[in-house]
Specification:
Layout: H1 7-62, H2 65-78, E1 84-89, E2 94-97, H3 112-120, E3 123-129, E4 134-145, E5 148-158, H4 160-210, H5 224-260, E6 264-269, E7 274-277, H6 279-285, H7 289-292, H8 297-300, H9 304-315, E8 320-326, E9 332-342, E10 348-357, H10 359-394, H11 401-437, E11 443-446, H12 447-457, H13 459-464, E12 468-472, E13 478-481, H14 483-499, E14 506-513, E15 517-523, H15 546-551, H16 558-568, E16 572-578, E17 582-590
Helix pairs in contact: 1-2, 1-4, 4-5, 10-11, 11-16, 12-14, 14-16
């Protein structure tokens, strides 16, 4: 909708008021002047009529109508030449006229001035004269005889000159009024600008306030009301600035707190649309926090469990708590807490959802349970065997030397396995403790010597199966390592390769130096590992074929130890395998 500026509301009002006053003054003065002139002229005609009436009365006493007519023409010639004299009988006949032949003139009994003169003693009329063809003012006086009106003396004069004079006066008044109107218009414009200018300035400064420039202040104008308004605007700007600074500081504090939180924080309105999400929530849920704002949670997060939890929180008056899983993202688990949010009117405005990533804890809990179960299972087997055969010896088996010797051999074998499991567990414990305390020392050492020492330690079992261990490593290749730990890792890999390789095959060890790492690969030509087991071969006590592993004397901890050793060195281990063709383990050491 079109809105006029204040100056164009004030200025037309001032101008219209001035023009109306001028028009009223002009109309009143014109009317007054015209009335004044006409009254003056009426008075002159009445005076002349009184003089003529006395002479007509004398003529009527001794003369005839012809004498009256002659007197009228005589007085008319003696006058100014503009005045006309007429004597009319009470019955309307014209007895004499200064300009025309009375015999040719019509009955005047219906003339307004004649009627008023007979009835009221004085009659006046301004009208167009058909005889003379112009506007005339008529004043009629009765000449009374014995208390009755005998004749009426009428004086007349053209009003053309008066109208011409009045027209000149009117023109002068109009020009004067026009000049006054122009001056009044300019003055009204200046006054309007003076009134509207401070308000316009306040409007511009208020717009600066709206743009955030709250340091600007409205100056004083000199008018008490506007100065009070300026003071109120300045006070408002000061309070707004303080409040905005407070809100900004609090928002930055909340933003810093939310950004530093490891938990994801997600805020939604009462319709389920995302209001904000912190960085942790964006990372945990894999969403764009800016792109997600204003969109329904169903559009952004395709997880039924979380969607139902959000709806439950919005509908509940109490804090909510639950668990949500994301199986499609590699098995992720979240502990979620929800609470309602209130808007400024203390009504339900939405909810805030806090997500705690419990995936690692969940996996560790599973690992712990598996580890306890595996340790219990692995230890129970040798302990049960030792206990059983020891009881058999106590029940009389000692009497049979051959049987006792066999029992003792089995007990010794299981005790050796039990000791191997304990040694491997202690090794893992020492590795984890060394990782946490950073107590392991590393030196820049040539790798070939370490690998040759490992091959020598594992050579006995390889010779038993007639397996050849080949080494390909340049003398110049070195890395920052802990030699005993790396040697143990290589021995475990060679031992595994020999265990699961057929007799007469070859185990290859190859070292490659790259830009960012040194890769040590151990490859066998054994039975290989199925693809579904590759991701878990480094877990403790995880074995692909348990019966074969026990038969070969494995504890299920060797690859776990290798993984921890390479992690201590800041590297990682990878595995590739094809069933029936062999397996290749690669240690990646950073340069």
């Amino acid at each position: 909708m079109f809105r006029r500026k204040l100056i164009w509301q004030l200025y037309p009002s001032f101008l219209a008021t001035t023009l109306l006053a001028l028009l009223a003054a002009t109309a009143y003065s014109s009317y007054t002047l015209r009335t004044f002139y006409l009254d003056q002229l009426k008075e002159e005609l009445r005076l002349v009529g009184d003089v003529v009436a006395s002479q007509v009365a004398s003529v009527l006493d001794t003369g005839t109508a012809a004498d009256v007519d002659a007197l009228c023409k005589k007085l008319g010639r003696a006058g100014s030449g503009q005045m006309r004299l007429t004597v009319i009988a009470s019955d309307g006949r014209v007895l004499g006229d200064s300009d025309e032949n009375p015999a040719l003139m019509e009955d005047h009994s219906n003339r307004a001035e004649i009627i008023d003169a007979i009835a009221k003693g004085l009659g006046r009329s301004i009208r167009f004269s058909p005889t003379l063809g112009r506007n005339m003012m008529y004043v009629a006086l009765p000449v009374r005889e014995a208390g009755q009106t005998g004749v009426v003396v009428r004086t007349a004069i053209p009003v053309t000159e008066i109208e011409r004079a009045l027209r000149r006066i009117y023109i002068a008044i109009v020009w004067a009024g026009a000049i006054v109107a122009v001056c009044a218009a300019l003055l009204s414009l200046l006054i309007s600008r003076r009134i509207s200018a401070p308000i316009t300035r306040m409007k511009r400064i208020a717009q600066l306030f709206a743009q955030g420039q709250l340091d600007t202040r409205v100056p004083d104008t000199g008018a008490a009301e506007l100065d009070e308004l300026a003071g109120a605007l300045n006070e408002m700007a000061t309070q707004l600035q303080d409040r905005i600074l407070t809100i900004t500081r609090q928002r930055n504090e909340v933003k810093a707190i939310l950004s530093s939180l490891g938990e994801g924080v997600l805020a939604v309105d009462r319709r389920g649309r995302i209001v904000s999400a912190n960085r942790a929530a964006a990372q945990l849920l894999g969403i764009d926090p800016l792109g997600a704002q204003g969109r329904h949670i169903e559009e952004v997060i395709r997880n039924v469990g979380l969607q139902q939890f959000v709806r439950q929180t919005l509908e509940s008056d109490q804090p909510t708590e639950g668990d949500v899983s994301f199986p499609e993202e590699g098995g992720r688990f979240f502990r979620v807490h929800g609470a309602g949010l209130a808007d400024p009117q203390a009504e339900r405005g939405g909810a805030v959802i806090v997500l705690s990533d419990m995936t690692r804890i969940h996996r560790l809990e599973n690992l712990r349970r598996d580890f306890v179960a595996n340790v219990s299972h692995e230890l129970k087997t040798p302990v049960t065997s030792i206990q059983g055969f020891a009881e058999a010896l106590l029940d009389g088996g000692l009497g049979d030397g051959e049987q006792a010797s066999r029992y003792l051999g089995i007990i010794a074998k299981h005790a050796q396995r039990l000791n191997a499991i304990i040694d491997d567990l202690l090794s893992l414990s020492r590795l984890e403790e060394g990782t946490e305390r950073r107590a392991i020392l590393f030196e820049e050492i040539a790798l070939r010597g370490v690998l040759e020492a490992a091959i020598e330690l594992a050579g006995v079992r390889a010779e038993q199966k007639q397996i050849k261990v080949e080494l390909s490593c340049d003398e110049s290749i070195s890395a920052k390592i802990n030699a005993p730990l790396l040697e143990q890792a290589i021995v475990n890999l060679i031992d595994n390769a020999v265990k699961y390789s057929d007799e007469g095959t070859t185990v290859s060890i190859e070292v490659l130096q790259k830009d960012s790492e040194v890769a040590i690969g151990v490859r066998d030509r054994g039975c290989g590992i199925p693809k579904e087991h590759l991701a878990r071969v480094f877990e403790r006590f995880y074995v692909v074929d348990k019966s074969r592993s026990r038969k070969l004397g494995g504890t299920g901890l060797g690859l776990a130890i290798v993984k921890h050793i390479i992690l201590v060195h800041g590297g990682h281990i990878s595995v590739e395998s094809t069933p029936g063709q062999g397996t290749a383990f690669t240690l990646h050491l950073p340069r």
